[in-house]
Design brief:
Number of strands: 9
CATH superfamily of the largest domain: Vaccinia Virus protein VP39
Number of domains: 2
Order of helices and strands: HHHHEEHEHEHEEHHEHEEHH
CATH class of the largest domain: Alpha Beta
Structural class: alpha/beta
Helix content: 25-40%
Number of helices: 12
Shape: elongated
Largest sheet: 7 strands, mixed
Distance between the termini: 52 Å
Strand order of the largest sheet: 5-4-3-6-7-9-8
Length: 306
């Protein structure tokens, strides 16, 4: 797939060539972009530490030999190995903030980011003082909340020690060590007697059928963060069964389940989940008030055992 160095000289050359190759090879775009042009621009400019907003006139700048070699390597890995661009660059953006990412964590893309940007209006009666980001991965959801709620203490919890290493790097990168910290926890097990005003979770929820059908790009992400049983709800069942024990009196639970929304609705037809809507795309995110979690806790525990 190697492009001829004698023919590609400028940023514009490499972006144009990458667009053509991405489309010819039918790459999947779903980790920050949704089309070949934006993906190519993100990879080429990001690899050379250039801003996305750079004036188009600079695209005609000629590249040094080492820059061209670096781009050749990254483009080859993107096309031949289907490595997502965020992993190639070691960075992804979420809620307008940069996050360190690698193959130990999912690439940030949750629609919960739109809720954070809106400060969860109209769903929160008041700003939370304690926030839990359960199954945190890179820490992007919890850290973005820390920017919106300046007085809040934020806990980032995950079963994966490797993921928490990345989350800790992001806490340090954003200078939030004074009120954001990590806890290794399998669901709520590592958080005994802790209570939160807001619990957010983007847990593993992909069912067996969807896992089998996923494009190759997704298989670079940690399987532990994606798949969770035949219907994708093994961990979601546990979260629902225990959430009432960890929410404050007026707390709120928000959980992303994506395409497994159909399984949630089939498993709990008695529960009036609030399914949130998103202007920027996304689906399968439900909200429950603490009172609902308490009201249905016996049901949630029963279905956990079934």
């Amino acid at each position: 797939m190697t492009a001829s160095p004698s023919r590609l000289h400028t940023l514009r050359d490499y972006i144009r060539w990458a667009v053509s190759r991405f489309q010819a090879e039918q790459l999947f775009f779903g980790h920050g972009t949704d089309n070949a042009w934006d993906e190519a621009r993100q990879l080429v400019l990001g690899a050379l530490h250039l801003p996305w907003e750079m004036a188009d006139s600079y695209l005609d700048c000629r590249l040094e030999d080492d820059e061209r070699a670096h781009l050749q390597d990254l483009l080859q890995r993107r096309i031949e190995q289907r490595v997502p661009t965020a992993y190639l660059l070691g960075q992804a953006w979420f809620c307008g903030l940069p996050f360190i990412v690698d193959e130990r964590v999912l690439i940030p893309r949750s629609p919960i980011g739109e809720l954070i940007d809106r400060r969860f209006e109209p769903w929160l009666a008041q700003a939370p003082t304690r926030v839990l980001d359960l199954c945190t991965g890179s820490g992007c959801i919890g850290i973005a909340c820390a920017y919106e709620f300046l007085e809040a203490e934020v806990v980032l919890a995950d079963l994966s020690f490797e993921a928490l290493e990345v989350a800790n790097r992001n806490i340090e990168h954003h200078g939030l060590e004074d009120r954001v910290y990590t806890v290794q926890s399998d669901g709520f097990d590592g958080l005994p007697k802790q209570h939160f005003d807001l619990i957010l979770s983007n847990p593993p929820y992909v069912d067996a059928e969807d896992i089998a059908d996923m494009p190759n790009e997704f298989h670079h992400e940690p399987a532990l963060a994606l798949a969770c049983g035949e219907d994708g709800l093994d961990l979601v069942r546990r979260i629902l069964a225990q959430a009432a024990d960890h929410l404050t009196e007026t707390g709120t639970l928000i959980v992303e389940v994506g395409n497994s929304q159909v399984h949630v609705e089939a498993l709990y037809p008695e529960v009036e989940f609030t399914w949130l809507e998103f202007a920027r795309g996304g689906h399968g995110v439900f909200l429950l008030a603490a009172s609902q979690c308490r009201e249905h806790q016996a049901l949630f525990r029963e279905r956990l055992r079934s």
